[in-house]
Amino acid sequence: MTTTTDRADAATAFDPGGTGHAGHAETGWDRRKRATRTALRYAAVALVEERGLSGVTVEEIAAEAGVSTRTFFNYFPTKEDAVIGWEPSAIAELVDHLLRRPDHERPVEAVRHTLAEVILPGDGDYRALLRRLQVIRSDHHLVAHYVLRFGDTEQALVAALAQRRGTDPATDRYAALVAASVLAASRVALMAWCEDEGRVPLGEVMAEHLDMLGAGLPEPTEARR
Amino acid sequence: MTTTTDRADAATAFDPGGTGHAGHAETGWDRRKRATRTALRYAAVALVEERGLSGVTVEEIAAEAGVSTRTFFNYFPTKEDAVIGWEPSAIAELVDHLLRRPDHERPVEAVRHTLAEVILPGDGDYRALLRRLQVIRSDHHLVAHYVLRFGDTEQALVAALAQRRGTDPATDRYAALVAASVLAASRVALMAWCEDEGRVPLGEVMAEHLDMLGAGLPEPTEARR
DNA sequence: TATGCAGCTTTCACTCGGTGCAACATACCC
DNA sequence: GGGTATGTTGCACCGAGTGAAAGCTGCATA
After folding, report:
1. Cβ atoms within 10 A of the Cβ of A213, count?
2. Across the interface, which of B148, B167, B216 has its CB nearest the CB of A148?
3. A28: nt with nearest C1' to CA
4. pLDDT by residue, tens only, chain A of 225 residues
5. Which of residues 107-146 of A touch B (CB under 8 A)?
6. Which domain holds residue A178?
7. B215 with A217: Cβ contact below 8 A
């Protein structure tokens, strides 16, 4: 019901200055690729929202986006990744930000600020994020895959933290612990924000959770928190 | 190299009182099933250790264990699960233990004790656990799958914690946060223990990590911790 | 000991996810 | 305008995973 035609040829329909916020002169190829990627993500979310993950095949998503099945796999390694909107560049960006944080900052704070800068969509497109999270939450398999991608992020963060601290990422337990627990808390915060349908600003929800983590998980006094 | 024949017909070769520590009268079927399960796990770990995850097919694992491919899938939902030794019963057991912890115990402590009781192999078979963890760590895909199963465990823990606290598991953020971060810390501890090749007792490593978490992740003072 | 039942294993057929490769199309640059 | 880099497609293929029906195995009866 949702679509079927409106996005059919998104691969060739160039984005008319829509989400474009790319600084350095974008070539035609880049535009085309971004359009295809967006179309695939959009199609994936829409179809899965409608029929559930197992009710949709990659072939259908590709068709909906107006590209071949093979092309789908040129953009996303798995069906799930198209739904959760996985971007390989996101991890690199995260690491980049983390390495730029001031040296005096403690690891937990550095990671915290980094996440705040990177996860929260600067363009204010919280609606899309919320919708995607709702679709993810609706399917156990998608949640699992989401957690899995957090795992990838975690590995990258450990490497970056270790670099910051001048330690060996393979043996720096503190870095591993910080990355794992802060990411876990962030994930829970995202889910809570989603559960709440975005009424409380995401930044606040994140801060709340990370504060609790930083305080050693004290049991909330008031009932129902 | 490792095997090829020694375990070939483990499905029919009954376990001669080996790992058997089942209290309530075990029927022949149970013995047979346990033997098959063990053979599959063993074959999976051995073959993957030898050739890597992608160098081994389910068909080969099944053949090595002396059963058909279809039977493999009657025991494990995925190839990865056979390697990581996933047991659906483990989660139930975890929940069970958690619900039996004394009421006055704070959530973090309750989860902590539960994990200590369930994760640590009572029969002292740390060698097998260590080997399995080493195989898992050697492959990114296996690590991801391992994290994924921790995610399943997490959901079960949240439900159990919420029940304990008399809250709604869907909205109890504190339960979600505790489950997620404690499990994350435990996972990191397991990996650290493995990295260390089991020289320091697992229980100690776990305690160290959970203490750090409970203290709010203070930056270790001494260099290299 | 024979017989029936229950539960496990196997075979078969099939769908779908995912990848490598070679041919084709498109945008860019000279 | 022609060459080149890059993106897209079709094709062939492999392996994971599932459903269903038939066969086998152990157990509990008479």
Report:
1. 26
2. B148
3. C27
4. 333 333 334 443 333 333 333 345 677 778 889 999 999 999 999 999 999 999 999 999 999 999 999 999 999 999 999 999 988 888 999 999 999 999 999 999 999 999 988 877 666 688 999 999 999 999 989 998 998 899 889 999 999 999 999 999 999 999 999 999 999 999 999 999 999 999 999 999 999 999 999 999 999 986 444
5. 107-108, 143-145
6. 87-214
7. no
Same domain, A15 and A100: no
Q: Which of B98, B135, B143 is nearest to B118 (CA)?
A: B98
Structural domains counted in chain A: 2
Q: Which nucleotides of D are covered by protein (CB under 7 A)?
A: 6-11, 15-20, 26-28
Separation between Cα atoms, residue A179 and residue A186, nearest integer Å: 10
Both structure tokens of B162: 């919420």
Q: Are residues A210 and A155 in the same domain?
A: yes
Q: What is the CATH number of the domain that holds B103?
A: 1.10.357.10
Q: What are phi and psi of A217, to 5 degrees?
A: 55, 55
* Cβ–Cβ under 8 Å, residues B158 and B150: no
B119 with B196, same domain?
A: yes
